[in-house]
TrEMBL record:
Classification via PROSITE patterns: DCUN1
MF (Gene Ontology): cullin family protein binding; ubiquitin conjugating enzyme binding; ubiquitin-like protein binding
Domain of life: Eukaryota
Organism of derivation: Tripterygium wilfordii
GO terms of biological process kind: protein neddylation
Protein name, UniProt field: Defective in cullin neddylation protein
Pfam annotation, one family: Cullin_binding
Function (record text): Neddylation of cullins play an essential role in the regulation of SCF-type complexes activity.
Domain DCUN1, chain residue ranges per copy: 33-224
Gene Ontology cellular-component terms listed: ubiquitin ligase complex
Length: 229
């Protein structure tokens, strides 16, 4: 009785093991094919000499996805890929982003964009995306700040849909003030905190004694003077 039971148990384990091996083999083949499609898609946009998707390749990609190259979703895609250099995607970055999105064709990539947008808009992800957007625009080695004109465009692109009034007024202020020619990461992140924490447009809970960047103290003073006029 025990011997028969042991034999059956051995057969069952053997069948289970074979089924598992077959599943792993099929899964591995599917994964390899998926990576092959992701690779092929990359090389359809990459520059042959550099083996990178360059600004021209990104424009072609945007055209195929039917979005403008200035659309915030292309920045979201760069964030998902953890792209390091503005206007360029490496094969490794492409792998990381498309695999995470489950996209190995342009059609799937287009369908993944709404979900990517939802992911970025979640508070747990958005701060990381907002910080990334600033770093992505640091195009020179050892660059730590961004010129006012570029910052205004970036604010509009990244934060405009969430905090329209704050962004519009801050952009207006940045364009007329003469104290600052560039914005650094601390000021950039300070404005995001300002949008989330300070009542607008009355600024009743704004305390300049707290650790706000000086540019925001000046902005609030300018706003109050504007409102009082």
């Amino acid at each position: 009785m025990r011997k028969g039971s042991s034999k059956k148990s051995g057969q069952s384990n053997s069948i289970t093991s074979t089924a598992t091996d077959l599943f792993r083999s099929a899964s591995s083949k599917a994964s390899l094919k998926e990576m092959e499609r992701i690779d092929n898609l990359f090389y359809s946009y990459a520059d042959r000499s550099s083996s990178l998707i360059d600004p021209e390749g990104i424009e072609a990609l945007c055209s195929d996805m039917e979005i403008d190259h200035t659309d915030v979703r292309i920045l979201m895609l760069a964030w998902k890929m953890k792209a390091e250099k503005q206007g360029y995607f490496t094969l490794e970055e492409w792998h990381q982003g498309l695999k995470a999105l489950g996209a190995d064709t342009i059609s799937k990539l287009k369908k993944a964009l709404p979900e990517l947008e939802k992911e970025v808009r979640r508070p747990s992800s958005f701060m990381d995306f907002y910080k990334y957007a600033f770093r992505y625009c640091l195009t020179e080695e050892k660059q730590k700040s961004i010129d006012i004109e570029s910052i205004c465009q970036l604010l509009n692109l990244v934060l405009g849909s969430q905090f329209r009034a704050q962004v519009d007024y801050f952009i207006e202020y940045l364009k007329i003030q003469s104290d600052y020619k560039v914005i650094n990461m601390d000021q950039w992140m300070g404005f995001y905190r300002f949008c989330n924490e300070i009542s607008f447009p009355d600024h009743k809970n704004y305390d300049p004694e707290l650790a706000w960047p000086l540019i925001l103290d000046n902005f609030v003073e300018w706003m109050r003077a504007k409102q009082a006029a």
